[in-house]
Design goal:
With about 270 residues, the protein is an alpha/beta fold. It has nine helices and ten strands. The chain has two domains: about 170 residues, P-loop containing nucleotide triphosphate hydrolases (Rossmann fold), CATH 3.40.50.300; about 70 residues, no CATH class.
């Protein structure tokens, strides 16, 4: 995917108030989704859901199909087989209704390095149809929440890697989504920046009730209270609460469970 594709994935989605009819539905429902690149099958009958106000970790090696799945959910790729719904809205039949409920942080950086922090947010807000006055108020609010209020006028290129990632999360939250997708969001960050980002995202779940799908290849980014989906070579090998996955695999930790389910050796994933 290109930076321009990633940054415009929801460019035409209008900013609307969220209704109350979706409260009991999964934030994200993926049913029997398959995808191929020519003869290579990247996803095979993938099936899982993300509940509102929950943190779901999508764990897999590089090449497992995580980014392909994100491209399908965000409509960068068309669905070849299966069904994807966001709070009940089919992304193929009702894309605007579905995408307005979702925010995304892609693995590639999609910020404009030569614009200021505030300019990046205002530009993104304009793509969502948010009026300039409201956009500035929302931008100030999210910058304060992520601890970047004092950097609003700074050029993005002057931020640290961790600050850039926090800014991308802030940008994804501008239109007030109820589902947040993050694809390998901590790649390239140091240990403290990774921990800070995870803490911030988990806080969004508990304080704002946002459903989160967090794609990662790192075991230590997953905690016992998370929901877990293990994706390997395009197939879901396990899903459910961490304790359930460990019990069903007969393992004492996530590392061991992953090795038993996938047949990989210790150290194949990062820690």
């Amino acid at each position: 995917m290109t930076t321009s594709d990633a940054s415009t994935v929801v460019a035409t989605v209008p900013d609307k108030p969220v209704g109350h009819d979706t409260a009991s539905l999964p934030a994200l429902s993926i049913s029997a989704v398959s995808h191929s690149y020519g003869t290579r099958r990247a996803l095979i009958d993938v099936d899982f859901s993300v509940a509102p106000a929950s943190f779901t970790a999508l764990l897999g090696l590089n090449g497992a199909g995580k980014s392909t799945l994100f491209s399908l959910v965000t409509r960068l790729f068309g669905i070849q087989a299966g069904d994807i719904r966001i709070f009940g809205h089919d992304i193929g039949q009702s894309p605007s209704e579905a995408l307005r409920l979702m925010g995304v942080v892609f693995q590639p950086r999609t910020l404009d390095l030569d614009l200021s922090v505030m300019q990046n947010l205002l530009y993104h807000a304009a793509l969502h149809g948010i009026g300039r006055r409201n956009a500035r108020l929302r931008s100030e609010e999210v910058l304060s929440r992520i601890g970047l209020a004092d950097r609003a006028g700074s050029k993005v290129r002057d931020l640290s890697g961790g600050q850039m990632r926090r800014l991308e999360i802030a940008r994804a939250l501008l239109h007030r989504p109820r589902l947040l997708l993050l694809d390998e969001a901590t790649v390239g960050l140091d240990v403290k920046a990774r921990a800070d980002m995870l803490g911030h995202v988990r806080q969004l779940v508990t304080e704002q009730g946002i459903g989160v799908l967090w794609a990662t290849h790192l075991f230590d980014e997953i905690i016992p209270s998370d929901n877990l989906v293990i994706l390997h070579q395009g197939r879901v090998l396990a899903r459910g609460e961490v304790a359930r996955v460990l019990e069903e695999s007969g393992a004492h930790d996530i590392n061991s469970a992953f090795m038993r389910l996938t047949g990989t050796q210790s150290g194949s994933l990062g820690s």
